[in-house]
């Protein structure tokens, strides 16, 4: 099973500090840096939410529902 790490802006748009906390949380949860990041943006192009799916068993990404090629 994969684990979803998601952060949402505390105001109308995400700050650099909030984005940094998201990245630190993702790496702390087992992300290796090759995972695709998904985001929601405002109509003005500001970042509102960001999430990434991190496999719980990096040695077997298919078993986690995570088919991204790590090669």
Core attributes:
three-stranded antiparallel β-sheet, 1 helix, 30% strand, 18% helix, alpha+beta, single chain, 71 residues
Using only C-alpha atoms, the radius of gyration works out to: 13 Å
Structural class based on helices, strands and sheet pairing:
alpha+beta
One letter per element, helices H and strands E, the order comes to EHEE
Instruction: Give a quick account of the main beta sheet: strands, pairing sense, barrel closure.
Output: 3 strands, antiparallel
The amount of helix comes to 10-25%
Strand order of the largest sheet: 1-3-2
Mean pLDDT: 86
Counting H and I runs of at least 4 residues, what is the number of helices?
A: 1
β-strand number: 3
Q: Report the span from N to C terminus.
A: 20 Å
Runs with pLDDT <50, length 5+? Answer: none
What's the overall geometry? elongated
Q: Beta fraction of the residues?
A: 25-35%
Description:
- The chain is an alpha+beta fold.
- It has one helix and three strands; from the N terminus they run βαββ.
- The chain has one helix spanning 16-28, and strands spanning 2-8, 37-41, 47-55.
- Strands 1-3-2 form a three-stranded antiparallel β-sheet, covered by helices on one side.
